[in-house]
Amino acid sequence: MERLTIGQRTLLWLSDSGISNKRISQVLDYFGSPADLWDNFESEKYNLTMLEADTISKLSRIRISFEEKCLERLKREKVKIVTIFDEGYPKKLKQISGPPYLLYYKGSLDGINKISIAVIGSRKATSYGKWAAEKLTRELSELGVNIVSGLAVGIDAVAHKTALKYKAKTFGIIGSGINVVYPKKNLELFKQLSEDEKGAVITEYPFDMQPVAFNFHDRNRIISGLSEGVLVIEAQEKSGTLITAGHAADQGREIFALPGNIDSLYSRGTNALIRDGAKITRSIDDIIEEIIELRERVKKQDALTDVTNLTDDEIKILNCLKSGKNTLDELSRETKMDMGELLSNLTFLEMKGAIRVNSDNVQLNN
Amino acid sequence: MLSKIKTCVLYGLEGYEVDVETDLSGGLPNFNIVGLPDPSIKESKERVRAAIKNSGFEFPVSRITVNLAPANLKKEGSQIDLPIAVGILAASKLIRPVDEKTFIIGELSLDGRITAIDGALPMVISMRNNNFKRALVPRDNKEECGAIEGMEIIPVESIGRLVDYLNGNITIEPYKCKYDFSGGPDEYQEDFSEIKGQAAMKRAVEVAAAGMHNILLLGSPGSGKTMIAKRIPTILPDLTYDESLEVTKLYSISGLLANKGGLISKRPFRSPHHTSSRTSMAGGGTNPRPGEVSLSHYGVLFLDEIPEFPKSVIEVLRQPMEDGNITISRASGSFTFPARFMLVAAMNPCPCGYLGDPNHECTCSQGQIDKYLGKISGPLLNRIDIQIEVLPVKYDDLKDKREEEPSAEIKKRIVRARNIQLKRYENMGILTNSELPAKGIGKFCRLNKESESLLKNAFEVLGLSVRAYNKILKVSRTIADLENSENIETKHLAEAIRYRSLDRKYWR
Question: Of A200, B225, B415, B462, whose CB neighbour count within 10 A is largest?
Fold first, then answer.
């Protein structure tokens, strides 16, 4: 980025002073266009009732040699920006109410207008949730769907990692400044997402903005806004995940919810969503069915499991799993294998890609 | 008017020969002890005076000088009461001189009775190695000393009887007892059959016990971690005679022999609380005593809620886990105590305990969870061979009427596996697979082609860390031994891979 357009300069300037997206919208309405805003700000600044005096004086102060400083910082941090007036702005975002005027991002927004599904869920997921997130994300990735999520720990991290592994584009929307990595645990994931061909880390917040709770509420509207549908893996009642689902409903996006056991805290939210009309997601087919473009794209993948290559014992275990027995104790009882034998067979099955073992819990891959 | 009596003082686990020389001479009546006695020995004066008088003998009215030789060695312990009393009686010609091959230990009470002391067993063993033939010990210490070959143990209960014995008026039969360490009914309160379900955890514990592998149990409250840990001693092989001597020595100097009983035949099980200090864990004091790591020698050291232990306490475990002993350096010298234990650690997945539990809400923040798991340092994790996660027991399992396998059955398998290991490592100075050094792994844990490729795959597919490599090999060796299989087969390796699953889930 050699120079900024007048729109970019004005919006960066407003954003940098820390005023919210809503206020930006009000100020722009007052002046009519970004150019008018930039030119006439000094003369009109005492009439701007929607801004606080502090903000106004800050705007005046940082205005001087703003462009040079700003360009320098963007370059140093390898951050790019796109405004709602620009060509590269995500088309889907323009459709939502209260779209962010300015997005900061690292990586590349190429392909962001293609079909995307947001995969979201609780930070403290159960092993079932993680398994389902991985399975469904993998299947979506293999269909070439972009995966959008919030770069938090738990389901978000599983979704991003799986998308990276299966070479799908993946976009992480964060609730802090682009240079603030939160949670720190995800630093590695941040770096990977920031690579051009893999996707992008996106935020509407200016540099150095700390991840305060309120931001997450707002960034959730971008997660759903960027996607055709939102897949809710696990959510507690009254959780941020449900807020995203609420945004999705407001924006007219499809909501997919993974059903769970009724005694699981982490499935209460998703089960409630299903009651309220979200699409129950028993397999990838339930998602494909709702999204027209996907239906056309579908070509069924070959089963991963090579059943011809399994031993009798392994088949016995798979059959037990299919009948819903999935803890180690149950499997050992049903198959009449002693624990040592069972454990070693499980390793073989896992190596062959037929199952996943999560702590005490065994799940089929297909 | 001079007498010389042999006795013994302890430094760490070693007993040193000490001469108690007593001289009676004219002059003002006085009683002095020289030769670096510590306060407990200086106080003996009063006990000796009263005990002699109350036993019906005359306490000599003269200048009494007691010298403890060699004079450069600091002496500590109440076992010197009795030799001093005997020295005074011998110097005043009330008893015949005691021969050079006899040594005397014992504490006195004011009425002339001889009471039990700490550390009688290590003293007797050390003195036997110094070619002593006879030991006069307090009667209450006879059980622990009676099993020592090559030493006559003469139990005495009072000064009166001791004098009669030394003068040849009565005879006291040397005390001998035989210990049978093979089999015999176990008197444990607990049994494995009381644990319903949890077959995976039981199997992991069986493998761990068979190879003395350190094990980490991770699971939410109520999953039975503590219950199973408490039952591990019931499946461990009985101590051998030599092992028992070593363990009893440690308990003897710590004064922990129950009811002043005989040799310890059961493997120790220690579960220090997480408020324990470094010293209590490692051992210490001016004249160091063994700590928890040594008290669990040849047995189990169980640390419940291991992240709650202060880091400094946990790090103390590193040297003993590596070397099988612990060295304590103090101003008075450095002392080495044996500490070959099997570490059984239990912890929750997060501070509140419910992370990943579908039925309870976890109330911890991510930062709290990271901090909690971070307390288990890499080097410590490195020394834990088996990690297993346990989920709460299901109601169906609890009410299940099926008989669970009793400890005795599991123990049989473990004893067999241990015997295989003992034979294999006969001349290597190690006892179990867990102690196998890197060089030995190459020699005894060879994999066939199929297993090699399985392991390579596992590293890729499961994302195991490199540090897991040797652990997996050692554990597969143990699993093969449990099956009495000469070579490690692929299925053994496949099972061992399962016991590293936590590495990738929590610590990455």
Answer: B225
CATH fold group of domain A307-364:
Arc Repressor Mutant, subunit A (1.10.10)
Contact across the interface for A263 and B370, Cβ inside 8 Å: no
Please state the domain extents for chain A: 6-76, 116-297, 307-364
What are the percentages of helix, strand and coil residues in chain A, rounded to 5? 50, 15, 35
Mapping DSSP to helix (H, G, I), strand (E, B) and coil, where does residue A119 land?
strand
pLDDT digits (tens, 9 = 90+) for B111-168: 999 999 988 999 999 999 999 999 999 998 888 888 888 899 999 999 999 999 999 9
Tell me the pLDDT tens digit for each residue of B346-379.
998 888 888 877 777 788 888 888 888 888 877 7
Ordered by where they begin, the domains of chain B are 2-166 (3.30.230.10), 192-405 (3.40.50.300), 436-508 (no CATH)
The residues with which A264 forms a beta bridge, in sequence order, are none
Measured in degrees and rounded to the nearest 5, phi and psi for residue B254 equal: -90, -5
Facing B495 at nearest CB: one of A127, A344, A353: A344
Q: The pTM is what?
A: 0.72
Binary contact (B356, A124; C-beta < 8 A): yes
* Assigned architecture for domain A116-297: 3-Layer(aba) Sandwich (3.40)
Q: Which of B366, B479, B493 sits opposite A123 (nearest CB)?
A: B366
CB contact under 8 A, B494 and A348: yes
Instruction: Kindly give, in sequence order, each residue whose CB lies less than 8 Å from that of residue B181, ignoring residues fewer than 6 positions away.
Output: B238, B239, B240, B241, B244, B265
- The answer to whether the Cβ–Cβ distance between A347 and B390 falls below 8 Å is no
